[in-house]
Amino acid sequence: MSEANQEYIVLSGARENNLKNVSLRIPKRQITIFTGVSGSGKSSIVFDTIAAESTRLLNENFSMFVRNFLPKVPQPDTDAIENLSMAVIVDQKRLGGGSHSTMGTITDISPILRLLFSRAGEPYVGQANMFSFNDPQGMCLECSGIGRRLGIDMSKALDMSKSLNEGAILLPDYKVDSMDWSIIVQTGSFDTDKKLSDYSAEELDLLLHGKARKVEMQFGGKAINITVEGVIEKFTNKYIKRDLKTMSERTQKAVAPYITEGPCSSCRGARLSQAALNCKINSLNIADMSSMEVGQLIRVIREIDNPVAAPIVKSLTERLQHLVDIGLDYLTLDRETDTLSGGESQRVKMVKHLSGSLVDVTYIFDEPSVGLHPRDVHRLNELLQKLRDKGNTVLVVEHDPDVIKIADHIVDVGPHAGSRGGTIMYEGSFEGLLESGTLTGNHMKRPLHLKQDCRQPSGKLSIQNATLHNLNQVSVDIPTGVLTVVTGVAGSGKSTLINDVFLSQHSDAIVIDQSAVGVSTRSNPATYTGIMDDVRKAFASANKVNQGLFSFNSKGACENCQGLGVVYTDLAFLESVKLPCEVCGGKRFKEEVLAYKLDGKSIAEVLAMTVEQALEFFQIKEVVRKLQAMSDVGLNYITLGQPLSTLSGGECQRIKLASELHKKGSIYVMDEPTTGLHMSDIGLLMAIMNRLVDAGNTVIVIEHNLDVISQADWIIDMGPDGGSKGGQVVFEGTPSQIIHVEHSITGRYLN
Ligand code: ADP
Ligand code: ADP
Ligand code: ZN
Ligand code: ZN
To answer: What sequence ranges are listed for the domain ABC transporter (predicted)?
Structure first.
């Protein structure tokens, strides 16, 4: 290899998925951004080729002995990749982790904060474990460090306007004439015809909280000693103090409506022992600091003037500053990670890497601008540049022009999607891209048009005085029969307003989100849309055989892979590996089934068709309608048999949209539908949304994309800023009005 090539990752003859012998030189220690329409092959280059090869090389570092236990990870389909460094993928997969994983634990900031309290807190408590809610020494023993406890919803448990005989106790075990009801009534301690609201405090306490005691009662003519205890006491012991998850589904369903979750009364949600909570710095304890927004916390930490703690303070402020820089200053350290959005999750992961000391790593980002308002994109850019300046190679798949601008090198993939893509259209600088004449280049130069002829609403849906999370008494009307875009900077309260408040009040609304579709690993676009049923029938009648043969979970499926076409092998300490099935070679069906043809094609050949090819092949009316809907949402390039698990979030969202296109009079809610969409595809998305509205539906979209905002009938702008500095409606009106509103950040960016 020549000296000069050392400065490049050299890829030759890549053929994964739709790639057509792609060869590339990617400059090392620079930012390279991959652009192109969805389905053109960006991920096939970056994830399926470069990242996959890096993982394979990493596995080769294991000794021969260990490798003998590992299945052979197939080499990506490419002639060669030279000069690759370790790849780290920073994606939008949500951070799971349950109640014990918080922003603080995942960014490694919480351990440093604990260290700070153990050194500088007063009174002195001991070492750092005392401040960890994941450690038996530090956790609140009442709630085991969860911070919340289950309780009974008294308003649902009792009807105070009734007597015992009228069924005042609403809990499931106490129906009139039931065993538990009879026991209470037969104690003789209560006036069973008196309304509960007329009970004295003592009577009510005995009924609800009476301690367990033996009482002699008559049952079936016999006197027996029976244990009686307060209704609430008994329900608590029977259900709340035990792990509900171990009970039958029926029991769980029956008791769930009566159970509420609230902060633990002992630690008041702080999760820590009293000793830990009494320890303070500048009159704040560790729970106070963990529940502060990062933007405020960093100021509090900076004020700590204690020479012993100085190095810890420095390290803490550095990490907190990273969170501020990336636009997450509105989050708190105690925020549970499974409540973060995809974009927020990716940015949190990014911060983790910035604080690390790895150099010469290839970082790979998948649309890091997701969830960021145009105002905050520059912060993301600065972080990408910081990673590069530390000596790393940064590869980014991105559609946002403001991010693309900062690339040292751009690779534009195209010209279209699927089989009509997979080639490199342009390589070079940003300025060069603008003049390249490619779809991406041309769309970058297009001016924004503000919608003028906005639709008149048919009515309105009201939200009154909403106060959840950061919402500050928000009252707002959402017009029906039009396209409404809810916008505002990250953390301003858009999702809280729409996904939490609005959806809980309008349960008939249909949410079209990016979460994975499909119930099993065998699901694919054909099974999801129902096309597969018609295809099976067609094969069956053409060959005069049973249609069951053509199902993935039938006798007709390949026995080795059970119709999956691939075999998964679990590895103890690596992610599970997927290998093509050796028996059917990925065709999923037995030889004898593959011999049956429909118009000359086998079932495997039909499943390998793209939506576009299938549209030419099929004449069945229902099938054509469903295929056309998929084509309309821009999914022409996916194949009928492609596992749904290989679809991106944006593609999942659009396949859901496709199955809704024939409905009328519904309310649709979409969260950032432009995710994964190239600028040239946004027009298509707008056309679909307009089609839904024209058919009499109401469409509500949460978006930052200026092309979408400018085409709304109605804009609701949240703000003014994120977190406690947000939570208000800054503007309601049309696109041509918002650009005149000084205090609307969105308005400024539209201008
Ligand atoms: P992009 O990242 O530009 O949106 P992709 O690289 O994901 O595009 O996809 C390129 C083409 O390869 C598309 O036609 C897509 O449907 C197809 N493809 C991607 N992943 C798989 C897979 N695991 N199996 C089969 N086809 C795939
Ligand atoms: P946006 O959708 O505009 O980005 P969000 O509605 O997600 O904003 O967030 C608004 C505020 O509410 C932020 O301060 C955020 O941290 C907070 N928040 C959102 N979801 C939760 C949650 N599940 N628990 C606690 N706070 C939350
Ligand atoms: Zn507690
Ligand atoms: Zn097989």
So the answer is: 4-440, 448-751
- Claim to verify: residue 565 and residue 420 sit in the same structural domain: no
Taking only the tens place, the pLDDT of each residue in 94-103 is: 666 666 789 9
pTM of the model: 0.80
Are 528 and 635 found together in one domain? yes
43 lines ligand 1 (CB under 6 A): yes
Portion of the chain with pLDDT greater than 70, in percent: 95
Residue from 469, 670, 672, 730 whose mutation best tests the ligand 2 pocket (most atoms within 8 A of CB):
469
Return the pLDDT at 1.
Answer: 44
- Distance set, CA 369 to CA 364, 461, 485 (Å): 13, 31, 18
pLDDT of residue 576: 57
Question: Is the C-beta atom of 488 inside 6 A of ligand 2?
Answer: yes
Name the residue with the closest Cα to ligand 2, atom 14: 723
Whole-angstrom Cα distance, residue 257 to residue 152? 9
Q: Which residue from 470, 499, 700 has its CB within 8 A of the most atoms of ligand 2, so it is best to mutate?
A: 470
- DSSP string across 685-742: HHHHHHHHHHTT-EEEEE---HHHHTT-SEEEEEESSSGGG--EEEEEE-HHHHTT-T
CATH of the domain at 313: 1.20.1580.10
What number is the ipTM of this complex? 0.93
The mean pLDDT of the chain is: 89
Residue 306 lies in a domain: yes
Tell me which residue has its CA closest to atom 22 in ligand 1. 646
Q: Which domain holds residue 524?
A: 520-646
Whether residue 369 is found in the same domain as residue 430:
yes
Distance CA 160, CA 158 (A): 6
Residues 575 and 609 in one domain: yes
Number of domains in the chain: 5
Q: Indicate whether 333 belongs to any domain.
A: no
Which ligand 1 atom lies nearest to the CA of residue 638? 16
Same domain? 505 vs 640: no
- Please, is 70 exposed, middle or buried when counting C-beta atoms within 10 Å of its C-beta (0-12, 13-18, 19+)? middle
167 and 258, same structural domain?
A: yes
Percent share of the chain, pLDDT over 90: 59
In a domain, 337, yes or no: no
Mean predicted confidence (pLDDT) in 159-174 = 93
Ligand nearest to the CA of 329: 2
Find the largest Cα–Cα distance for the chain: 101
Question: Tell me, what CATH number does 225's domain have?
Answer: 1.10.8.280
Confirm whether 393 is domain-assigned: yes
| Residue 73 pLDDT class (50, 70, 90 cuts) | low
Cis peptide preceding 263, ω within 30 of 0? no
pLDDT score of 573 more than 50? no
